[in-house]
Amino acid sequence: MTTDASGTSPVHHAKPNTQILRYAAFTHDPAGGNPAGVVLDASGLDDAEMLAVAAEVGYSETAFVTGRDDAARRFRVRYFSPLAEVAFCGHATVALSVALAAQLGPGEIVLDTPAGDIPVDIRVDDDGTALATLTSVPTRSRPATSAELEATLKALHWAPEDLDPALPPHVAFGGNDHLVLATGSRARLADLDYDFEGLTEVMRRHDWTTVHLVWRESAERFHARDPFPVGGVVEDPATGAAAAAFGGYLRTLGLVTSPARITIRQGEDMGRPSDLLIDVDPENTRTRVTGRAVPIVQGAGDVGRY
Q1: Whole-angstrom Cα distance, residue 138 to residue 286?
Q2: pTM of the prediction?
Q3: Which of 30, 189, 195, 250 has the smallest set of CB atoms within 10 Å of its CB?
């Protein structure tokens, strides 16, 4: 531990022997998707050291395995952004699961997370890339209040008429809370220039992990962007936790009347295209989220903090 320039505040650094893997999730291309750090043995790290690792990696999330039972294929996991711990992270779950499959082989595993148990099924596709399908904790969704909506629109520099009236604003949960806002045009979604500090304050006040901005291309295909200022990054290129929550949103609104697979395209506007698949069943409160993950070779696609 060292001190900052003032000589008063402690600054932790990652232990030099900590092995950090880097994966891009929800893509087959290391230059796409959402990068995540993965630490397969964090049993010797305390909270401050895990936060230091996440900050030095600089990605939106790093997953830490703090306990493991390889025989039972059960793993205790925590997630840290560069600024704080979060209860659940979907893209880091996909990255971690693929990394574990490289050690243990494909099949089913269970992750014991602060949000609850997350079963994950990992398989290898015909082209040799690994896919992971996580099953979320039970989802829920409620209408956003007028105060929540007004403050968020102000921080986003959006107007009420930018919203799609057929998809009302909701606060949706799939391991953590996300405000879901649907816009009526792809152009509005592409033009994202928000007040970083202002949105951070709103999100901290309501304990939201991201604001999940979506545009509906069709009933089976949506485009999304996820501001993540509370995690220290402007935007997430693929947000599995928000996708899980969005599945609950669609189910709550009755927009899925039979089991359906929906594609969410994210990250395109920031040059890191990502594809997230969600399976939503109107009779099941849990969302299944599927995505690929591929290793990142440092110096080739290792984008650091956005």
Answers
A1: 5
A2: 0.91
A3: 195
